[in-house]
Amino acid sequence: MNEISLIDWIITGGWILIKIVVIVAPLMLAVAYLTYAERKIIGYMQLRIGPNRVGPRGWLQPIADALKLMLKEIIIPANSNRYLFVVAPTLAIGPALAAWAVIPFDDGLVLADVDASLLYILALTSIGVYGVIIAGWAANSKYAFLGAMRSAAQIVAYEIAMGFALVGVLMAAGSINLGDIVRAQEGSLVHWFWLPLLPLFLIYFISGVAETNRAPFDVAEGESEIVAGFHVEYSGMTFAVFFLAEYANMILIATLAALMFLGGWLSPFQGVPLLEPMFAWVPGMVWLMLKAALFLFCYLWFRATFPRYRYDQIMRLGWKVFIPITIVWLAIEGAAVVGGLGPWFD
Amino acid sequence: MAFEKLVFYILAAILVYAATRVITVRNPVHAVLHLVLAFFTCSGLWLLLEAEFLAITLVLVYVGAVMVLFLFVVMMLDINLAPMKEGFVRYLPVGLPVALLMLLEMYLVVRAKYFGVEQMPLPPRHGADYSNTAELGGVLYTDYVYPFEIAAVILLVAIVAAIALTMRRRPDSKYQNPAQQISVRRQDRVRLVRMEADKNE
Questions:
Q1: Which residues of B touch A156 (CB under 8 A)?
Q2: Residue A42, class by beta-carbon neighbours within 10 Å (0-12 exposed, 13-18 middle, 19+ buried)?
Q3: Residues 6+ apart with CB under 8 A from A170
Q4: What are A213-258's pLDDT values in tens digits?
Q5: Of the candidates A249, A113, A126, which has an alpha carbon nearest to the alpha carbon of residue A176?
Q6: Are the C-beta atoms of A208 and A162 separated by less than 8 Å?
Q7: Do the Cβ atoms of A127 and B53 come within 8 Å?
Q8: Residue A184, class by beta-carbon neighbours within 10 Å (0-12 exposed, 13-18 middle, 19+ buried)?
Q9: What are the distances in angstroms from CA A12 to CA A8, A19, A202?
Q10: Cα distance from B99 to chain A (closest Cα, Å)?
Q11: Is the dihedral of CA A243, A305, A47, A222 positive or negative?
Q12: Interchain CB distance below 8 Å, A145 and B36
């Protein structure tokens, strides 16, 4: 191998690293301020003010929290499996960040334009469960173990419904590339897939909430019965990494829902006579972020509104309600595709 | 090309290491995790072969679902490996010929005569617009549509059989009837009682 190509490799690698930083750094900031938004929004919903001491209106609270968590001691329980105990948080955050590689932020603005990006996302979100299971097992604690078991069963159950919902999307778009899926929704607000795939859209988002272990599906944490579930033994930065992974996953699910069902970076005023030129200057990334923010707000709203599901109810909903609905809707969609039902499938 | 070779050797080394650890490690949970690592590196190797659909599916199905259930079961079991190793010498006379026979069979099938570089020309490199997923779909749903459907039906039968074999309704187990639960009206559960205010403060 000659030297020129070696330099080429290094330059390419360096560019990719810079792109990764450009994606991950704002993501971390978004995670920090999502926790702030969560505390504020739930606070107002419960007639409280929420954090308001650190900085103006509490704006610096997440920074203070991050600093506190970084400086705290990491305690490793005496009878735990040391190595796996430390590896588990890494296994939780790795897939949560790696999935962002294929997310298109605007037309063509994507780190890796993989052909099978939807499958890649599905594969990566499904291995996020290892962090939870290994954390629960390695801690050698009954509560942690119970949390891990619950989480494993729940994620496997909801992954199937989620996968079927994605099958519906790829049938409608005729592609499993996320960019092509968004381009297939071009037209107007009613061209977006939320309308023809309404049941799949709802099931995808609810399964996403279950997959990220958020309320009302957060039995893996279940403060009232198993303290904090799988991360009960974690402290300091190791705990913070689990937290980061959970919130990064939330943002990921919200962004994916926006990409697949709400037209991604497309303007909602497409095809509207007066409004479309008026909002033409807004970059596509802003639309994507606004749509993702809508779903993130729903996440927080659910948490403030619904009581936690009982475990058997979660299982029933996943296996006996969601999976049959998705299968029926796939058959209906297949008929619509064959019949060329406009304006989506013609 | 050299970089690709480097990646291949790194992945292959990890794969061989992980696969060996699966059968040598003492803790069954560690064994399962090494198997997960083996699957993962294997999917990396498939990516090098431009089989991205198969590589991602391997991670999705085996790492994401099958091994999670494996781990689930292994963690629940309290396996003591010492009694399982006891009969090693006693079973050796049977085990050794079986192992040798399998080795021989594998040698007969996988050897240079059939799989050598002379027999199998290097597959051509495809451009960036080549879609492994589309190729596979095309072949699977046109040329091999009947074998594919037969395999699907066999799998379905296996699922139904597995459920039928394991699902026995125990008479003493309690379960909810959601239809009954949601048909409950307020009058069934809550009674509004009007009480006089207490006067002696």
A1: 65, 68-69
A2: middle
A3: A118, A176, A181
A4: 887 888 777 677 777 777 878 888 888 898 888 899 999 999 999 9
A5: A113
A6: yes
A7: no
A8: buried
A9: 6, 11, 40
A10: 34
A11: negative
A12: no
For chain A, give the longest Cα–Cα distance.
Answer: 68
User: Do you find a cis peptide bond into A343, omega within 30 degrees of 0?
Assistant: yes
A41: β partners: none
- Cα separation of A265 and A192, whole Å? 11
Distance CA A51, CA A39 (A): 7
Q: Among B42, B50, B68, which would you mutate to test the A interface (most chain A Cβ atoms within 10 Å of its Cβ)?
A: B68
Compute, in degrees rounded to 10, the torsion defined by CA atoms A317, A318, A321, A323. 180
CB-CB neighbours of B174 under 10 Å: 5
A109, β-bridge pairs: A106
pTM of the entire structure?
A: 0.85
Q: Residue B154 burial by CB count (10 A; 0-12/13-18/19+): exposed, middle or buried?
A: exposed
ipTM over the 0.95 cut-off: no
The span from the CA of A162 to the CA of A169, in Å, is 11
- Positive or negative, the CA dihedral A85, A89, A90, A95 is positive
- Could you tell me if A149 lies within 8 Å of chain B, comparing CB atoms? yes
The amino acid at A287: W
User: What's the pLDDT tens digit per position in A27-68?
Assistant: 989 998 999 999 999 999 999 988 888 888 888 888 898 888
- Residue of chain B nearest A9, judged by CA positions: B3
> CB distance A116–B53 less than 8 Å?
yes
